Each structure stands twice: as C-alpha cells, then as structure tokens.
TrEMBL record:
InterPro entries: DNA/RNA_pol_sf, Rev_trsase/Diguanyl_cyclase, RT_dom, Viral_Replic_Matur_Polypro. This is Reverse transcriptase domain-containing protein. Residues 1-69 form the Reverse transcriptase domain. Pfam families: RVT_1 (PF00078).
Amino acid sequence: MMDHIFAPLIKKGGVLVYMDDILIHAITRDELENITLQVLKILQKNDLFLKPEKCEFAKQRLEYLGAVITPATIEMDTAKLNGIKDWPIPKSTRDVRKFIGFCNFYRRFIK
C-alpha cells in the first residue's frame, strides 16, 4: 500500500518506503522541505497519520533498517555488527540457517 501511494515520489527520487518506514532525502534544505510537504499531503489525502515521537526531520545522521546513514556513508549499525560477532555457535541446521539469514541481510557491509 505505501509503495503504491508514494510511487510518484519514489520514482522521482527523494523518498524510500519500507513497510511503514518512510525515508525522505535530498541534497538541499529547500528540496528536503518540498519533498517533506509532498509526503505529508499524500499521508493526509490517504487518511494516514504519523506518530510524532517516531518522526525525525532534517537529520545529518540516522538509523534506518539496521544501517547508519550520513551524507558521506552508509554503515552497518554497530549493535547489529556485535550481534554477528557475538552469535552463539550453531548447534543445529536451523541455527545455521538463522545465522545465514541474519548475515545475508547485512551482506553488503560484511567483508
């Protein structure tokens, strides 16, 4: 549903949606404000609401889907990295699959 209602903004760039998480990004402050207003209008038009305590605006550093994003980098959240380092030794095939699934999500960060 969210992908559908935000499709025009997603195609243009500046908006990423995963489930109910919306990430708005832009090069300039004016662009950011413009895209943010468009997102808010779409939410209002579709009777969708934001929880103010879950919103962050105009951040230079943020955590999104297990990644830490800055203007210069996208890195793995250190808590998730520690989760891999401290993973218990698998004792069954199911345990191995869980570990591989967890690592697979973060594969672009693992060297």
